[in-house]
Every structure is written in structure tokens, then in C-alpha cells.
Write a structure and sequence with these properties.
The protein is an alpha/beta fold and 392 residues long. It folds into 2 domains: 172 residues, Rossmann fold (3-Layer(aba) Sandwich), CATH 3.40.50; 200 residues, Dehydroquinate synthase-like - alpha domain (Dehydroquinate synthase-like, alpha domain). It has 15 helices and 9 strands. The strands form 2 sheets. A 6-stranded parallel β-sheet has the order 1-9-6-4-2-3, sandwiched between helices. The protein is globular, with a radius of gyration of 20 Å.
């Protein structure tokens, strides 16, 4: 079967100490003044100083905006304030430095300078039509892949739900990925963000939009992350593990940007919106129940994921292979202290499943890629199953 395969990516600079190229990359973008958007922990880690030094060496002036937030998820007003500052400071380049939340704010702030209105006006696919201020993204975690995707996720405080902006126009112009910047990540962040990266490879592999290019990226990212997440979590200063986690995250980001996530992410949004759990945790407590629910249509692909994780599946039936895959995923999550069901994070009210199911079902952008046609009732049952500990 012949496919037409569009492939989206910003310019990427990857490698140890590649952050030192921030100034030269900004110069290529003809930047004269940059607004650096970051968070308090990034400022304290020393990563910001490296970018400042590089910009100074390139004779590019800059100002710094440190995000203040009361929730783990970025909010719409944070992006709107940052966009206002970009205009007020006459910045012609936005530099985002931090985890996925910071990068999402920075990307959207840049986009709003070229598009009228507020963030809520752009929830959904393809609504941002114009490129805004040029943007350079620098991740400090091996996690979301936001630096190379066309997505930005926000907590809408008015409705207490998470929503996505998904448009080619918000993709960064340049992504600089320096694995050295992830060394200071706390252990829990390494686990949650690393698993997020793993799922950004695995879920596109079972997406309706998967293609041979994203399949190759997904399987290699799963292979690399599965072999290095535990080491990076166990020893933050294991530079080989950090390098490989960043590389795996880059590949999974490409897979995400071009094949997309689906069911797990759609169901995680109501959980993250209501309970403000870290994104990776919202995903980990739902994944096994979701993958069980798609096994009927994607069993063979789940077996291929197990093989990429290093499991021996040659000669086994699909049914046996699916169990091996789910067992391997469960082991990976538990080995880095991530929860695998809702009750483990204190969510025990099963009556909410029906409410969450309606919200998740309305995430048509994501569920349109799901490998199974799901009703609201189907999704509610998956939530109910996610309350129960995994038993294999």
C-alpha cells in the first residue's frame, strides 16, 4: 500500500553541550533581542547561565521571564502574559528553557504575537493560522518532546480541564537538545517524564496514523528508552543513560508529531485537569487498562513493542505476546516507582468514571486516531478497570 507521508520537524541540534550553540542558532534566525522564558528550578540549576553566556557571545540582547505558577500544568493566562511581554520588550525571538510545561507556554506565547485573541480561541486542531515570533526551544527533561511537536497543552482554569492547541504554526523554529541539561532532573521527574517519552513512542505505534517512518522511530525509541530509563532514574549522573534518554525522547517526539497519541492521552486529560497530577503519572495509571482495551485490534503491534523492550516473543501466540507486553510495561513502571492504577494515587471514587468518560470522548482530535471505535460507555469501563491493580 502506497502512502503519502507528511513529516514535520523543526531544525534540531542534538548533543552533549550543544546548548553552547544557542547564540549561533539565534543569530541564524536574525535575532536581535530574545525573551527567555523559564521556570524557577531551571534558573536555579545553572542551565540558564549557559544560554545567557552563549547569547552574549553572539551579541544578542535578552531579558528573562521566570514563570510563576500554582499548578503543575501550564495555564492559559501564563501563555497570554508571556505573549504580552514578548511584544512589550520588542523581542524578535522567544527562547523556552525547561520541561514540557515551560516549552508549551513559550511556543504559545510566540504564536499569540502573530494571531489575535486568547489561548482558548485556539483549542483544537489547526486553528493557529499564522507564525508568530520566532522560537527556539531548549528542553531540560527527557520527556514531553514539546521542543519538536506542534502541540501545546494547557489547564483551562475556567473549566478545570486540560486542552490542547495543535497547529503546525506553533512548532518551534529550532530545538537544541543537550542531554547534559537533564542531569539535574529530580528522580521523580526523570521517571515521569521518561515514561511520557516512552508512551510518545508506543502510542503512535498503535495509532491509525502510523506509517513506516513513524514505526521505525517508535520502535527504536521504545528500545532505547526501555533500556535506559531505569539507569537514568537510579543514577542521575549516568551520562550514557542521560544521553540515550534524550535521544529516545527526540525520536519519540518525532513519532508523536507525525502519528499522534490517542486513547491514553485522551483519558489522561480529565484526570490531570481535576487532580493536577504530573502528566506522566496521569498516563501511567491508565496505560495498562487502555492497552488491554485495544489488544483485540492491535495485539500484533503490542507484541512488537514487547520485542523492542527486549522481551522474547518469537514463536509465541498473539495472546501470549500481549501478556508479555503488558507484564513488561508493568515491570518497567514499577521499577522506577511509577503508579499503575488510579487507587495508587489516591483516586478511589469510581462514580466519577462516567463523568471523565464524557470529557475523554469529546477529545475527538485524539480519539480519531484510536485503534478502536469507543463509546462513552466503553471509555467509562476502561476507567473502572484502571482503578484495579494490575494482575497480569
Amino acid at each position: 500500500m502506497w502512502q503519502t507521508i507528511p513529516f514535520r520537524t523543526p531544525k534540531v541540534v542534538f548533543g552533549m553541550e550543544s546548548i553552547r550553540q544557542a547564540g549561533s542558532e539565534a543569530k541564524i534566525l536574525n535575532a536581535k533581542k530574545a525573551l527567555l522564558i523559564t521556570g524557577p528550578s531551571v534558573k536555579a540549576s545553572g542551565a540558564l547561565e549557559l544560554i545567557e553566556q552563549s547569547l552574549k557571545e553572539a551579541s544578542i540582547s535578552y531579558e528573562i521571564h521566570v514563570l510563576e505558577r500554582a499548578t503543575l500544568e501550564p495555564t492559559t493566562d501564563m501563555a497570554e502574559l508571556a505573549a504580552k511581554l514578548v511584544s512589550e520588550k520588542n523581542a524578535d525571538l522567544v527562547v523556552g528553557i525547561g520541561g514540557g510545561s515551560v516549552l508549551d507556554v513559550a511556543k504559545m506565547a510566540a504564536a499569540l504575537t502573530g494571531n489575535p485573541g486568547n489561548v482558548r480561541d485556539y483549542f483544537g486542531p489547526g486553528k493557529v493560522k499564522n507564525k508568530g515570533t520566532k522560537a527556539l526551544m531548549v528542553p531540560t527533561t527527557a520527556g514531553t518532546g514539546s521542543e519538536v511537536t506542534q502541540h501545546a497543552i494547557f489547564l483551562d482554569l475556567e473549566n478545570n480541564v486540560k486542552k490542547a492547541v495543535a497547529s503546525q504554526a506553533i512548532m518551534a523554529d529550532v530545538a537544541i537538545i543537550d542531554p547534559m541539561l537533564t542531569v539535574s532532573s529530580p528522580r521523580n521527574v526523570t521517571a515521569a517524564s521518561g515514561f511520557d517519552a516512552w508512551l510518545h513512542a508506543a502510542e503512535p505505534f498503535v495509532s491509525k496514523n502510523a506509517n513506516p517512518v513513524t514505526d521505525a522511530l517508535s520502535l527504536e525509541a521504545v528500545r532505547v528508552i526501555s533500556r535506559n530509563l531505569g539507569a537514568a532514574w537510579s543514577d542521575p549522573k549516568d551520562l550514557d543513560a542521560r544521553y540515550n534518554m534524550s535521544l529516545g525522547c527526540l525520536m519519540s517526539g518525532f513519532a508523536l508529531a507525525n502519528a499522534g497519541t490517542s486513547l491514553v492521552h485522551a483519558m489522561a486529560y480529565p484526570i490531570g485537569g481535576e487532580f493536577h497530577t504530573p502528566h506522566g503519572v496521569s498516563l501511567s495509571v491508565l496505560l495498562l487498562a487502555c492497552f488491554k482495551a485495544i489488544a483485540a485490534s492491535k495485539g500484533e503491534r503490542l507484541v512488537r513493542l514487547a520485542a523492542a523492550m527486549g522481551e522474547k516473543v518469537e514463536g509465541v501466540s498473539v495472546r501470549e505476546g500481549v501478556k508479555i507486553a503488558l507484564d513488561a510495561i508493568h515491570y518497567m513502571l514499577r521499577s522506577v516507582d511509577l503508579p499503575t492504577c488510579l487507587t495508587e494515587i489516591g483516586i478511589t471514587d469510581k462514580s466519577k468514571a462516567a463523568i471523565w468518560a464524557k470529557d475523554a470522548w469529546n477529545e475527538r482530535r485524539l480519539l480519531g486516531r484510536a485503534p478502536r471505535d469507543l463509546t462513552v460507555e466503553d471509555i467509562a469501563r476502561i476507567y473502572e478497570n484502571a482503578f484495579e491493580p494490575y494482575e497480569g
